[in-house]
Amino acid sequence: MSGVSFRPIGLIVGCLTVLMLGFQNCATDIQFSPDANLKADPGTSSDVPGSVGQNGGMLDNPESSNNRDNSGSPAPSEEDDAGTLLPPNPVAGQQPPREVICDPLAPSSEMCEPPPSGGGGGSSGGTPPPGGPLPPSGGAPEPGTSPGLMGDLYYLSRTAHGDLFDGNLNNAHLDDYQEFGTKTPFAVVMTQVNVTPRSWQDSFTSNMGNTVVDDQDNVLLEWFSLRLSGQIKLPAGSYQFAMISDDGMRVTIDNVPILNHDGVHAPALDCASIAVSFNGQDAKPIQVAYFQGPRVEIAMQLLVRPLSEDNGRCRNDGSWQTIPASAYSH
To answer: What is the rounded CA–CA span in Å between residue 48 and residue 58?
Structure first.
């Protein structure tokens, strides 16, 4: 009987011993020091608030990234099992660069030409009309900007959008392309808005060699729209603007629509009824919207002339000048 009476005591002692050893191990693993910096899991930052993850790491941290080392520099590329160099992981929240289509409506020999060093008219998009180029407007874009205007490319198709316009895309207007059309994933850059009236049967091809097609895999030659924006800077003075378009086109400068000839039509000259003044130092915001209806004739020109009393009527009398590429930036 004496042996039986001691068994519960021995069992209790054994359990207490196990618990104390376990607590000692836990105390050894979790040590806090007021002078030590807490270390988060790899790829996290310990000094940015966030939610604690399963392994103690920080979640929802906009500055954390698995492709940076302790110095904040991008981590080097890794190699796969075959020894092929792999690109580093993308930074969290950062979008990959878009493919670019540059001067798509200009002849292929004139695409993406940089502005002359002296800030002259440039040759992209056709020959300037009589009157000669404007004086240089600075020769180079402002710091932190790039040459030309930049924007998006939209299109309408008979299969996807025909019912919206009673089966006839000729009924579509400028804003319909942005509101109802399909936006392509490409960015468009135009170094000048100077596409003279011409036949255009090329295609939109990106800097990666990809050709834009519609929802039926047809090369995009008609029923497309360009929406461009950026800045324009001219020498000090007051100017009148004009445009030649085929088809619809609208120009807004300093948030004021100065030119608007919407709808499907043959090449036509339109002149602004209000003047725009520049101080020679500051650029003004500009937006250009254009759409091409049925193939294949196009025109998309923005022209200017110094304001004077003898400008005369709105006609192509040789007083209009091509705006140099150096005047545009984005």
So the answer is: 8
